[in-house]
Structure formats: C-alpha cells, structure tokens
Specification:
With 278 residues, the chain is mainly beta. The chain has two domains: 3-17 and 162-274, Domain of unknown function DUF5300 (Immunoglobulin-like, Sandwich); 26-153, Immunoglobulin-like, CATH 2.60.40. It is built from three helices and 17 strands. It has helices at residues 3-6, 32-46, 54-62, and strands at residues 26-27, 71-78, 84-89, 97-103, 111-113, 117-124, 132-140, 146-152, 156-161, 170-177, 185-191, 205-208, 217-220, 222-230, 236-245, 249-256, 267-274. Strands 1-7-6-3-4 form a five-stranded antiparallel sheet, with helices on one face. Helix 2 runs antiparallel to helix 3 (54-62). The longest helix has 15 residues, at 32-46. The radius of gyration is 19 Å and the shape is globular.
C-alpha cells in the first residue's frame, strides 16, 4: 500500500477553525486589565450575545471559570525568541496565570477557559525579571470544545481540536505551520515500512502557509514518515520518521523552529489527545 492510498481521506483544505491573530508586542501598563475587559465585552457583543457580555467580563476579574462553560485549552510554545513563556486566562494577575515557564517545543496541560470567548495573555516568564506582554488576544470559543493554541514568534494560532470518535483502527491527523520563517509547505505521509520514494507521490495537502492549519482526516494506525517540502518543489524543509500513530487518537502535527537554525531547527511536534470513544 503506498502512502497516497493510506491517506485517501485526509482533507486537503485549510481549516476554517484556524484563526491566526497578529498582536503588537509591548510592555504592560496599569491600563492593561481595563482594556482586556473591554476587549472581552466588545467581542461578545460582536458575536451577537449582548446578554452574556457581563459574564466573561466578570470571570476575567477573578480568573475562575466554572463548569458552566466547559472549554479546555492547551498551549504550545513555538517562540524561537524565548525559551520560556507564561500564559494567563481571563486576566493578567498572578492568580490568573495558568502556565508558568512553558518551555520552547512543549505542550501545556489543559486549562479551562470560558465561552463564548476566552481572553489569553502571554507574557515573558515571570522569573526573567521583566513584566513584558507578548500577546493579548480574545479567542472565540464554544462550550464543550477543545482548543490548541500555538504561540509563535509573530502570531497566536488558536485551533479547535476534533475529538469525536474515529473509525475502527483509525486516528485523526492534521497539521499546523507554526514556524514564522518556514516556507509554505506540501505535506507527504507514507507508512514507515514502505520503500516508496516521496518524490513519486502526490502530497496529501499543499500550500500550508505560516499561521494556517489543515482540516483533519483519518488514517490507519501504524508508523509513518511525515515530510514537509517547500510548496511546488522537491526541497525537503522538515521531516519526521517513524512517527507512531495510535487508533482512537486525534493528532496535531505542529511545525516549529527556523530554517537553518542549530538551536531551533525546523521540527514537527506531535500533539495527541484521546478521542471521545477511546
């Protein structure tokens, strides 16, 4: 079985639930909390949910979401410029800091946000001695959904994770280009046991640019080689061989790093979560 047949159901379009957000980096100020609450309220109103506007704002003050709005969010540090970051949910006080010292190339535990929006603040690690704001965004969210937020050098990339049941002996896979300096990528997926040459196959998804995510598709469990080539060329930009894919899991493969870097080379980071039937 060649790689193309294995991934026949892999979607080749860009995910509409991927919402890259570009935010100006800057230092904190006493007005940050006030502006944050204003942004939350404005976002809710824009969604046509004016009657709920006060709810996220109130939770932004105490940073204690309840099970009334079950939104689970995990974070990936893809910032090559900082080895550690802190993440805050619905506020910028110390008790609203849910992740401290998230290292480059790692994924946080899941933390509870709020619906219909969750305010996310990313700062330089508190132990650095600087109270520097890196990102301050309002992410549209939906109750009962799972989200993965990639924090890159230039963008925050929030995506919804599909944890619905997969087919028998199937896993769900998708990709995100979270590397600011990487080219647009064509992705190839082949079974690790095959002797198929990547150049002889067609890519399963093409032209995935920085800040974009693919739709998800299902593949059989097994060991795979993943190759990302500069779009429309035979130039391999990033690859990962012998990647284990287990049935009943939903995987997001995040490209992080910088081309030619020795400290942060282009890498494919595998992020897995069990689906609801697992």
């Amino acid at each position: 079985m060649n790689g193309l047949k294995v991934v026949a159901h892999f979607a080749s379009t860009i995910d509409r639930h991927s919402m890259p957000i570009r935010i100006h980096h800057g230092k904190g100020s006493p007005m940050k909390s006030l502006r944050l609450r204003f942004l939350v309220i404005a976002a809710v109103a824009a969604l046509g949910l004016g009657m709920l506007a006060s709810m996220p704002a109130a939770r932004a003050q105490d940073g204690t979401p309840t099970n009334e709005f079950p939104v689970n969010i995990r974070f990936v540090n893809a910032m090559t410029s900082l080895d550690k970051i802190d993440v805050y949910i619905n506020g910028d006080e110390s008790d609203q800091r849910v992740v401290e010292g998230l290292e480059y190339g790692t994924v946080s535990d899941a933390y509870q946000g709020t619906a219909p929006v969750t305010a996310v603040i990313v700062k330089q690690n508190v132990n650095s001695g600087f109270d520097r704001y890196l990102y301050q965004v309002v992410v549209p969210t939906e109750a009962g959904k799972e989200y993965l937020v990639v924090v890159s050098d230039l963008l925050i990339i929030p995506t919804e994770v599909d944890l619905s049941a997969t087919g028998e002996d199937q896993a769900r896979v998708r990709a995100i280009n979270g590397a600011a300096q990487a080219p647009a990528l064509d992705f190839y997926l082949t079974r690790a046991s095959d002797a198929t040459v990547v150049g002889d196959l067609s890519p399963v998804v093409t032209d995935v640019r920085f800040g974009q995510a693919t739709d998800a598709g299902e593949v059989h469990s097994g060991s795979y080689d993943i190759t990302g080539k500069a779009t429309g060329t035979d130039t391999v930009a990033v690859e990962s061989n012998g990647v284990s894919i287990e049935a009943g899991q939903s995987y997001t493969f995040v490209v992080i790093g910088s081309p030619g870097s020795t400290d942060h080379p282009l890498t494919i980071l595998q992020v897995g979560q069990a689906t609801t039937a697992s």
